Amino acid sequence: MRGIEKSLDKLNEAGIRPVAISVDAPDASRDLAQKAGYTFPLLSDQKVEVIRRYDLVHAGAGENGHDIARPAEFLLDSTGTVRWINVTENYWVRARPEQVLEVSKLLK
Amino acid sequence: MNVRRINWPLWVALLLTLAGFMSYFFIFVWIPFTRDFPWANFVLFLLAGVLLVMGLRRGFASDRPHPVRSKIISVLVSAFCVLVMGFFAFAYFVIGRQLPASKGAPQVGQRAPDFTLPDTTGKQVSLNELMTTPINGKAPRGVLLIFYRGYW
């Protein structure tokens, strides 16, 4: 996400809006945004509903055995259709802004 | 001070081990070429390993001015370095891969499930708004959804 923030101008120029989703409460997300300097939206899915709908629940992996999201990225076009997905098998390996910019060229 | 008395390979190995560990988080994670697979860190660890062997041999050499101290220090430093390297490799190869499969995730060509969630100010934001609110005065061409683990 630090990489996404660094490339935010380029992404915005390409018409791409990054949005991050986790189980963190809005307050915790605000702290994170302030500390890390994130200026794109961070949304709060405390009930793990959206994360479940996207089949990205990492059961019991959070504090006190709470369910959290496993990392994944989806690029949607303006109609809401998925155009590219990156469901990593190793959480050290994340989507790179360069990859997203490359596939964003395919969007109408 | 006699240079022969310093077990330099041992101490350089320690520095390389620490550098190999921390450089990932401060340097290599920023470079696409070294981020996804931390090979640059493993190269540093390999160098550190070679120096550790040299340092251990030196520590156990018969001409050391303080033979007992020299042996103990070289063994302790080596053990510490091996632990640090082992932890790094374990974190990458084992902990990093402990992620559940996600067979039901939306696939390319499918419609992304709609949602409405609060942002950091508590305001409800829908996927539709994210896709239609202009960016720099223009309609967005796409939305990048990033699911992350968070602080909890």
Describe it.
The complex is a heterodimer of chains A (108) and B (152). Chain A is of the alpha+beta class and 108 residues long. Chain A is built from 5 helices and 6 strands, in the order ααβαβαββββα. In chain A, helix 3 (26-36) links the parallel strand 1 and strand 2. Chain A is globular and about 40 Å long. Chain B has 152 residues and is mainly α. Chain B is 51% helix and 8% strand. In chain B, strand 1 (116-118) and strand 2 (124-126) form a beta hairpin. Chains A and B meet through helix 2, strand 1, helix 3, strand 2 and helix 4 of A and helix 5 and strand 3 of B.
Give the helices and strands, then pairings.
The complex is a heterodimer of chains A (108) and B (152).
Chain A: H1 2-6, H2 8-13, E1 16-22, H3 26-36, E2 42-44, H4 49-53, E3 57-58, E4 68-69, E5 72-77, E6 82-86, H5 97-104
Chain B: H1 8-26, H2 32-35, H3 39-59, H4 67-93, E1 116-118, E2 124-126, H5 127-132, E3 142-147
Antiparallel strand pairs in B: 1-2
